[in-house]
Amino acid sequence: MQLILITGYPASGKTHRSNQLVKSFRSKIQASSDARISRLTVCHIDSQSLGLNRDVYREARTEKDARATEYSAVKRALGKDAIVVADGLNYIKGFRYQLYCEAKAVQTPSCVVHVGTPVDRCRETNLKILETDSKEDGYAVDIFDNLVYRYEEPNGMTRWDSPLFTVPYDDEAPPCQDIWDAMVGTEGKAKTVKPNLATVVKPATESDYLYELDKTSQEILNVIMEWQRDHPGDGGGELAVAEGTIELPASPVSLPQLQRVRRQFISLNRLHNLPKARIRISFVEYLNNNLV
User: Is the pTM of this model over 0.90?
Assistant: First the structure.
């Protein structure tokens, strides 16, 4: 599982560089005798394969839909044995970050390949395309200028844009070997990625866990309030319950105070999925530590 994001100005030669990478990687896979390498596949995602034309960048709504289409395609393609080359403008850093998080969630390395063609050369290339029979492959002049203006160049100092490989426009080919080593690994050692806690899917809790958490803690509060009603003016002391002993403070505890502590306990344990047998014991301990 590897994700390679291609980015650059419109008409900078991104598809050409992507095709060079795809050809190089497929050649390496075919020539390898390593079982880990030979089972890899290369998936090339570009505007043509997604059925997107250049006019989608004319309006914010259609551009947003186009990004969503690319995002969905990348997410579907990421798999255990897939190298995904996402060939597109990918010019918004927030979108690159979104794809970086998607890759990290499935514990796969990712990198950004920046096609560093100067804007004047891109403009010249685009005008030439518009003058040919394949003008649908070019960008309307106003769209081209707008995309160049809004382009957010990748920064290798940020985690979602690193490692960053910049390919000068006059280089014969991208640094295919360096990208291969960064994504696939060297000497038979696979690259591993530890997911962020924010991207880890938490295990499902028992269907009635939150109900039990709420019900059990409320039952214990009812016991405390009933004891205080039966012993008016009595402060402090110990209240024995089946799960242990509740140490009451010197002055009576109001219901709002108890409810506040209860809400804190529920919030802290909402995702911990305590065993049901321990909910009462844990809440009694929490009360003893937080009732003052």
Answer: no
